[in-house]
Design brief:
alpha/beta; Rossmann fold; 6 helices; 40% helix; globular; EC 2.1.2.2; purine biosynthesis; GART; Phosphoribosylglycinamide formyltransferase; transferase
Length: 202
């Protein structure tokens, strides 16, 4: 039987604004090749879990004990095809990443290879960009491999840096103008490729 849709799991640690961008597109029918099936968090009070609950998506908190083993079990239960890291602040092991080649997506708030790698996350990225004096920043969606922010780039979008920017204002502009647009688009692109590839293989 041909696969009609790729099943998507989103991993979150915080408020889940990037998750919400994907939910919005999915609910609007603009994710035709993907189905949001699961949201997982390593924090019990993560806002992303509440967003998933409100949208009727299965949502699960996993404690740090045996986190990856429990996660793998969940992913297999739900027959997940794509894993999206959306503000997920836990480093996945090399073994886990290698288990899902070209199936784990991450959004990073800069134009990779600038301001990325170990230690660059959240406001630290924007602080570094402003300190360096760049005139353009943005966001990158990439596949995840064992190198932090080192996987193949799927999509990028540039955003202007303004002279009076603070890390907080730059962060917000990049989310609004790049991350929330780019991530759902990239998820649909990968979902379409999976569906088409598996259909061809029938």
């Amino acid at each position: 039987m041909n696969k009609q849709k790729a099943r998507i799991a989103v991993l979150v640690s915080g408020g889940g604004t990037n998750l919400q961008a994907i939910i919005n597109r999915w609910q609007a029918g603009d994710l035709p090749h993907g189905d949001l099936a699961l949201v997982v968090s390593n924090r019990s009070k993560a806002g992303g879990l509440q967003r998933a609950e409100k949208a009727g998506i299965r949502n699960v908190f996993l404690p740090k004990e045996d986190f990856e083993a429990r996660l793998i079990q969940l992913l297999e239960e739900e027959e997940i095809d794509i894993i999206v890291l959306a503000g997920f602040l836990k480093i996945l092991s090399r073994d886990f990443v290698r288990r899902y080649p070209d199936r784990i997506l991450n959004v990073h708030p800069s134009l990779i290879p600038s301001f990325c790698g170990d230690g660059f996350y959240g406001l630290k990225v924007h602080e570094a960009a402003l300190e360096y004096g760049v005139k353009v920043s943005g966001a990158t969606v990439h596949f995840v491999n064992e190198v932090t922010d080192g996987g193949r780039i799927i999509a990028q979008k540039a955003v202007e840096v303004k002279p009076d920017d603070t890390p907080e204002t730059l962060q917000r502009r990049i989310m609004e103008q790049a991350e929330w647009i780019l991530l759902p688009e990239a998820v649909e692109t990968v979902a379409r490729e999976i569906v088409e590839h598996e259909s061809e293989g029938e």
